[in-house]
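Continuing the series of single-chain predictions for the mutant panel. This is the parent chain; the variants come on the following pages.
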Amino acid sequence: MRPLLPLLLLPLLLLGTAARAQPRDVSPAGAQCLEHECFAVFWASRSFSGASEGCQRGGGHLMTVRSTVAEEAIALLLQNREGRLWLGLSLPPSLPCTDPSRLLRGFSWVTGDHKTDYTNWAPSGKRCGERCVTVSRELSWEERRCEEPADGFLCQYSYGGSCPRLATQPGVPVTYSTPFGARGADFLALPPGSVAIIADLGLRLRCDDGDGAVPRWGRDTPGAWPCELGGGGCAGTCSEERGRPRCSCPEGAVLAPDGRGCRSPCEGAQCQHHCVVAEGSFVCMCSVGYQLAADGVSCEDIDDCASEPGPCEQQCVNTKGGFECWCHSGYRMVDGHCQRQPPCWDLACQQRCEERPDGDRCGCHPGYAVDPQNPSRCRPFCNTTECPALCGDDGGDCECPAGFLLDEDDMLCIDMDECDSGHCEFNCTNTPGSFQCHCPHGHFLEGIDCIPILDGEGEEASSGDLELEPRTPVPSRPPPQAEPLHPGVVVGIAGGALLSVLALAALGFHLARKRCRSHGSMDYKYSGPHEKELGLQPVPAAQKP
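Parent structure:
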């Protein structure tokens, strides 16, 4: 049995060899080309998928018929021949049946969209299982099963442009062939990649796309061919010189390297800014503010500020391709000129301005001081024990800084001696508008209270056991030692205390009367020991009231 196996396999191998030898591609029976599209008809029995593959091998796809123009192209290609041809319409897998209520009945073009301005369906209702479309000689569309072979198929090829039919003298035939296999002499437009054979002249020309430009007929050999054939391929004019064709270009253009095209002399020029055509060549030029460098193509910035005289009144700053004018401090630019500004024009001082060598600054009238929080504002302030009251323009509504009382008789602000009111536990120093408390050795100041400094065991430290630098000034002399008082001294002290109470009562009555007559306030405020140190000047003790 084993020797029979090669004999049985031999017919199968011969069948496979014959199948491979059969050409899968067929040439189109006819083709029509427009400026951007070509349509071709193939009379070969194929299924829908086989027809689609045949179009794709030529760089196209099954034909989409979206307008009457495409329908007219089909009519020319069929030439009244009987048979049905595949179109580029199929039903998507998601739809089981056709839908007669829709323009394309649910079908999609092979390009993946549903757009169309034209349909020509043969009368039919809802159909299932027939998922592809053919067209007949009557140009009507009909659903068919995709697996069943049709009599042929229509292909469509799209291009960015085309070459025109070559103009020749009578009796000089031209044969064309397209990239998708169509041949003939009656084409009106040829897609890129097409070839023209002129046997009588021994020429073979090719339609080139020109690197994205308009396609033109050309060949590998530079220079013009006979002028009677498509103008010699010249982009300009073709002329005969001593029996040899030659291309020439209009003024302002030069021949391209192929000897047929025309281009600007500036095409490919390396000018950094501008290229200007001049006498068949070019010259590089630069924008305003730049000058041409020594290499003739680059541009260098001009330092406008280095010119004499300079372009600016005061300060000049050079920029790329230009310059900027600035003004000195105290000036500002107005209509292109530097104008002197009045002192402190940009400070907005509340009261007055002080011109100083190191820069202008705001100042205040007597009785006021610059507000530390806002240097352009002023606030009431006295740095002595007595200063003029601050009154309105009409002389009324007089007021005094905090810590001062208004004396309406003399319109003066009198410093209040806060130390007489017993604010401090120990020693007190009065300052203009405020006061300072001082503590003895072994205590520290907290607010206005003196707190004893304790040792490690929680007991008050003796003056000799703990040496701490006091946070406030120390009294000028130590406090007196406690001693028994003589009875006479006690009586004297009691009498003196009574007289002091009477004196204080009389002073209080006098101050109350003044308070009622003025707008000043008797309420004195507590100020910390450093409240008024800013801007104060020491006052001799003789000036205290």
